[in-house]
Amino acid sequence: MGHKPKISICWLAACGGCDSAILDLDLHILELAESAEIVYWPIALDFKMESLTRRPDNDIDLAIISGSIRTDEQLQLAHLLRRKSKRLLAFGSCACTGGTAGLANFDSAEKLLRTVYATPALSHDTDPHLPREVSTCNGHELHLPGILPHLHTLDQAVLVDWYLPGCPPPVDLIVRTVHLLLEDKLPDQDTTVLPQTAVCETCSRRGDTVRLRSFNRPHLTDIPEDVCFLAHGVICLGPATRSGCGTRCPSAGSPCRGCFGPPEGVEDAGARALSALAALMEGSDGGDIPDTVGTFYRFTAPSSILGSKKLPVPEEQ
Amino acid sequence: MQNLSPGIRCIACSFCTPTPPTIGSCSWEPVLCIGSVRPETLLHAFREGIDGILLLGCPENACHFIEGNSACMKRIHLMAPVLEGFGIEAGRLSLLMKRFERSSDVKAAIAAFRQSLTASGVRHGP
């Protein structure tokens, strides 16, 4: 790129962890600020949506978007950023495959609102109110974004050029992606900057003869630090999850939860995890898995075969 | 009048299951081994709106590919709660592991499966 590339960083339905990961770049963030012009980053800098609206189409070199799409405002913002940007990077598990917030798709949006606002576990509010899209206060009309019936991944709304999954993406991969961007060496569209293999291939834990006789809970099972979780009956999604994370969770004593999504060529992460575990089971009487669907689809329900939903194509603006 | 007969897909081991002559609105798919059926194939069928899938495999310990039938059985065991999670009754996916000597027996098994689905009702797509 001859000029200083323009970058926008935006969060949609996200927890903020992805933006924290960008801040965790440490000194590299100064490098980014020096080499690129950040034109939109609402969580860290004072930019308003109007500043995006006023830009010409394709003015921004790269839009980095974290979070999934749960409200009509987020859908509108995703389309706006797509129109204003030459390239778009889906950043983090929620943008790429739906993330843990996608588990809410197993219930209706109405039940979700009732759970959060009408019957919150830690509230003693005797007169709870559900949020309304339009309300009045002191004579003023107030508007809130409307919730969509389902949570969607970013690529269900707009064309995504690159994917960087992870909850959140690890700093070394962000640095690598930023360097590739600044050197104008990002790979072809619709690919990832990640390895193509599964987590197990990079995991230091070993299990020579892994046979699942029963399913055990991790906090109730004593597992040596160099032994495979599956060898002790603890469900680990490493066989069906893309590597690149540096096996942070298994190294810290926690089985893989699948935040990097499926390896290259795998259509449904949960189905592949299910197949992998079935292949290791000695029989079908090893007990049940608590919250089976939530376990297999913890980060991928909105992008799964049964769980993905189409978004209507918006009218030309 | 609306046709409320459940749509069924029957995937059967070609070694142990003779093809029935007429099976109504059931699609028939012989495979070399029931263990070769990937969960993704079944999930796609349900997404496309099929009412039920009946898998017919070899009897236990009699698989021509040693353990294809037990591999399928274990997958079905794990798939049942997954289907339930997505709002599809587990009974809509069934595995029978037996050797069928006559095609009329296959037809009867399909009819029984269809009967069990009728209680659950016809699905309305994904």
Describe what you observe in this structure.
The complex is a heterodimer of chains A (317) and B (126). With 317 residues, chain A is an alpha/beta fold. Chain A is built from 10 helices and 10 strands. Chain A has helices at 17-23, 28-35, 49-53, 72-84, 93-97, 109-118, 171-182, 248-251, 269-280, 292-296, and strands spanning 6-11, 37-40, 60-66, 69-71, 85-91, 134-137, 140-143, 147-152, 162-164, 191-192. The longest helix of chain A is centred in the N-terminal third of the chain and has 13 residues, at 72-84. Chain B is α/β, with parallel strands linked by helices. Helices cover 36% and strands 18% of the residues of chain B. Chain B has a 4-stranded parallel β-sheet with strand order 2-1-3-4, with helices on both faces. The longest helix of chain B is centred in the middle third of the chain and has 18 residues, at 68-85. Chain B is globular, with a radius of gyration of 14 Å. The two termini of chain B are 23 Å apart.
Keywords:
heterodimer; A: 317 residues; alpha/beta; six-stranded parallel sheet; two-stranded antiparallel sheet; 10 helices; 15% strand; B: 126 residues; 4 strands; 36% helix; globular
Detail the poorly predicted runs of chain A: none
The total of beta strands of chain B comes to: 4
The shape of chain B is globular
The shape of chain A is globular
**Strand adjacency order, main sheet of chain B:** 2-1-3-4
Q: What is the ordering of alpha helices and beta strands of chain B? A: EEHEHEH
Instruction: Give the structural class of chain B.
Output: alpha/beta
Low-confidence blocks of residues of chain B: none
Q: In angstroms, what separates the terminal alpha carbons of chain B?
A: 23 Å
Biggest beta sheet summary of chain A: 6 strands, parallel
Distance between the termini of chain A: 30 Å
Helix/strand order of chain A: EHHEHEEHEHHEEEEHEHHH
Structural category of chain A:
alpha/beta
Distinct helical segment count of chain A: 10
- The quaternary structure here is heterodimer
Note the beta-strand portion of chain B: 15-25%
